[in-house]
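Worked example 3 (structure in, sequence out).
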């Protein structure tokens, strides 16, 4: 039941739930690493949260959403999880520019959006082609045909999740290293 928090630059390993947002609204999780947990990140009845630039690996569930809605998941790296993203009873979540390299990439039992207006996600098991070389696959990636969960703009090439990082916390300051 936490609202309006920013969690960044945390390392969470070997727990039941790495990061748990239960009944939480408008939080930002950015640049965290969740590994070797039963659940890397849990979104239970949580809304309007932003998850970006997180590395989520070697968990049972990378991200598990239960009755979660209107969350924004962008540019997360989900590697070697049993299930990358599992959404049950969850709808109106938006997921794009994420990398999915898992044993099972996604289970969506709701009504969620798997791409933005210009780009989707990278799926290691995508079998389509990119004939015109624009970086977007020529055929959609079906997450769940029954619920209509489809990435209409799957990425043909891996992303580098840390590049072009935008500040999700709302702070517009910029650091420059020399």
């Amino acid at each position: 039941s936490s609202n309006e928090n920013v969690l960044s630059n945390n390392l969470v390993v070997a727990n039941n739930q790495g990061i748990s947002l239960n009944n939480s609204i408008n939080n930002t999780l950015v640049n965290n690493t969740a590994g070797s947990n039963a659940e890397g990140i849990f979104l239970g009845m949580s809304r309007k949260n932003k998850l970006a630039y997180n590395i989520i690996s070697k968990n049972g569930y990378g991200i598990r959403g239960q009755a979660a809605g209107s969350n924004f998941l962008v540019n997360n790296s989900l590697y070697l999880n049993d299930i990358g993203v599992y959404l049950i009873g969850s709808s109106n979540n938006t997921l794009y520019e994420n990398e999915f390299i898992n044993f099972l990439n996604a289970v969506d039992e709701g009504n969620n959006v798997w791409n933005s207006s210009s780009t989707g996600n990278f799926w290691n098991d995508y079998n389509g082609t990119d004939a015109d070389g624009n970086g977007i696959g020529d055929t959609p990636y079906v997450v769940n045909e029954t619920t209509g969960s489809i990435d209409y703009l799957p990425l043909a090439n891996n992303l580098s999740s840390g590049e072009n990082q935008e500040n999700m916390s709302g702070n517009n300051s910029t650091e420059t290293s020399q």
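Notes: Confidence is low (pLDDT under 50) at residues 161-178. The radius of gyration is 15 Å.
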